[in-house]
Amino acid sequence: MGNGVRDSPPNASALVEALRGLGYSVPAAVADIVDNAISAGAATVDIDFVWAGKRSFLVIRDDGFGMDDEELQQAMRLGARNPIAVRAPTDLGRFGLGLKTASFSHCRRLTVASRKRGELSCLRWDLDELAKSDRGDWPLLEGPSEESQELLDGLGDRTTGTLVIWEVLDRIVTEGYSSNDFSDMVDRVGAHLAMVFHRILEGSRLKLFLNKRPVPPWDPFLSGHAAKPWESPPAPRRTPEGIVTVHCHVLPHRDKLTHDEYRRAEGPGGWTMQQGFYVYRNRRLLLAGGWLGLGNPKAWNREEAFRLARISIELPNSADAAWKIDVRKSIARVPIALRPWLGKLAIDTRERARRVFAYRGTPSTPNEANPIVSTWRAEHGSGGVKYAIDRRHPAVAAVLERSGAEGDLVLAMLRIIEETVPVQRIWLDTTEAKELPRTSFSDEAPEQIAAVARILFRDMTTRQGLEETIAKRILLTTEPFQKFPHIVDVLNNETHKTGGDRNE
Q1: What domains can you pick out in the chain, each with its CATH number?
Q2: What global pTM score does this model have?
């Protein structure tokens, strides 16, 4: 047995076919190529998906710095750069694999043409040609295929820029795949790009076009919305890899948003899936949603109660190894040293979001001097949580006071209601419908709400002898009338003299 060294290069075709299984979605793969364009200083990126059945293709053009022939050949190599090498602060890459692995995940022919200082270079990987090679080498072809020759005209008369072409989309256009499926995929790509690059798009640094239409940014945090209940100031933390900045947000309850605002704010994955951490590197979103394995004693899951909680984390690109960022830029893991800090911030944000969700955007206690009198209260005991009707609620108290000999019957009715609250049914309906059931007079006409308020107001001012201002003050701290100050404000005893009780 000797101590020599052997050269054992991988089989080119076998390795590339294996890399095709990395798990890139189409939106993630396209975003990876857009990263390259941004790193090359592009101001505009045009993405065109063209449906032609089995001959469908994708073209991505940018107006960046471009590459000369030597630079292009280096860019087409797998593992072109060492991932541990220091990157420029604005570089969005890391492994030197993105362009190739993202493309190979969905196509068998990748062509890249680039122009720098007016000179055009074009190289092509063809996995079918690679499979034919019996020498174990890596035949990188020059020039486009015959079918894509005219696509090079996409660079136009630009002196710089790069063109990426995907052909033979065997992982996309499969058996039974239709033009409708293709259109749906394009929509998913657009939603993903709007989310991943929203900070860059908002800064006017980049313009993205998908099938000739501009891609608008999607802000997960509803920045600047008047109904947003809470957000923290940015919290920077110095780490060995650089500054990590965290910014916590609680989004408005659905009741505080228009229908269009609500649908847009839910994001590509929907409200429940989009909760949690948003990890950015150089303003580019890497990970959207989820709790990064935090939680004690077991990791938190995405739950309805915390759907309004979203937390941004901004990383320097020198932190990739510490956070274990993967090739697809879709996985991140919190370093051990930062878990207690992030966990504390997340617990606070989750609790704030839960309160907004539970009280439909209205806090349970607007201030310590005037707490809201809720209709229901939660009683925590050794056997679990029990929900009881609060006998101090003005409507309940008024009925009990006037029930006289029938008081026991009223109390029995309240107990039956309390003991038969359909908690499991409510939970199931909420989970399936992804929204809270209608309560607190939601969607009720103002006159119907006013009719109920007038009954209580009349009891307070006539039977109890309270002054009108005091009665109104009580209603404004009573669930659910604290949500309708405009209705409470116009209540007065003249209503009772002018037929205001017709609906009562």
Answers
A1: 12-214 (3.30.565.10), 230-358 (no CATH), 376-497 (no CATH)
A2: 0.78
